[in-house]
Design a protein that fits this description.
By secondary structure, this protein is an alpha+beta fold. It has two domains: 30 residues; 85 residues, no CATH class. The chain has a four-stranded antiparallel sheet with strand order 1-2-3-4. Strand 2 and strand 3 form a beta hairpin.
């Protein structure tokens, strides 16, 4: 049988746990993830590489020979924490876009970071 002291300690631990979860949820609502660059939503399967670069930026380094894909990003701030959106672009042999995956990364805490997801609707 649990003593009164143990019951109070268990109750206090449960309250602290739920309070922490509540505060973390509240912080997630306040610190909303910045929106993905809207221009990236204009990308479509089969676009020529030149069209893609006109949307994501022509200063994108060509790393296809090394990595097999190109990537570029946009620095953003989330509550004064440095973060960025990255996009990974893959082309077929005729330089037509076959995939475009985006990812948000909070470089300080990881809070609200995402796994890669396709930008195609």
């Amino acid at each position: 049988m649990l003593t009164v002291k143990r019951k109070l300690i268990i109750l206090l631990c449960v309250l602290v746990l739920f309070s922490g979860l509540f505060l973390l949820g509240g912080a997630a609502l306040i610190l909303r993830r910045p929106a993905m660059p809207s221009a990236w939503q204009l990308l479509r399967l089969g676009m020529a590489r030149s069209e893609v670069l006109s949307i994501v930026g022509s200063d994108t380094p060509d790393a296809r020979g090394i990595k097999g894909f190109e990537s570029t990003g946009m620095d953003v701030s989330m509550a004064a924490m440095p973060s960025n959106w990255s996009i990974f672009l893959c082309y077929d042999t005729s330089e037509r876009l076959i995939s475009a995956d985006a990812r948000f990364i909070n470089r300080v805490t990881g809070l609200l970071s995402t796994e890669e997801f396709s930008v195609f609707p």
